[in-house]
Specification:
With 162 residues, this protein is mostly helical. It contains 8 helices and 2 strands. Strands 1-2 form a two-stranded antiparallel sheet. The termini are far apart.
């Protein structure tokens, strides 16, 4: 008897109705959305000040995230590509990435290809993911307090109940 291959057993992500994409097409238009999109957690944008990163560092980080398509995929855009997209020099890109690395949000991994030698660095974003997971509970708590503040008795009443 032949084994039935399911999406789970084949380790394939099941396709869900593309409602989010359709909503995005309604909002942005098909002509814009046909060029692709990138999923970025809102907490990354909301926590910029908390992460102590400048506007330019955030733009560099978002450009790196845009190249991270799957959990296990490699991120290795050339600094020249990032520089041309953002309007900075490759040296500025290098400095911003160095700061992101000092903050343990990004890790640079040198890449070489036999016969070509050194090529663009690979960037590991697991530090960013780890940091966002660490601060997520504080964002959850802040949302609860904000909701409680709007209710009769406010935050004091909410804390007394918990």
């Amino acid at each position: 008897m032949a084994e039935v291959v399911t999406a789970k057993s084949a380790k394939v992500m099941p396709i869900k109705p593309a409602t989010a994409q359709k909503q995005s097409e309604k909002k942005w238009g098909t002509e814009v959305m046909k060029h692709g999109y990138c999923i970025i957690p809102s907490i990354l944008l909301q926590a910029q000040a908390r992460l102590l990163i400048s506007a330019q560092q955030m733009i560099v980080l978002l450009q790196l995230v845009e190249h991270w398509w799957h959990e296990d995929s490699k991120v290795f855009p050339a600094k020249a590509l990032l520089a041309s997209r953002i309007g900075l020099s490759t040296k500025q890109i290098q400095r911003h990435i160095a700061v992101l690395e000092q903050k343990k949000l990004v890790k640079r991994i040198e890449r070489t290809i036999p016969g070509r030698g050194k090529v663009s660095n690979e960037y590991d974003l697991s530090g960013l993911v780890k940091k966002l997971k660490e601060i997520a509970p504080e964002f959850d708590e802040a949302k609860k307090l904000k909701a409680a503040a709007a209710k009769p008795g406010g935050i004091k009443a909410a804390k007394a109940v918990s």
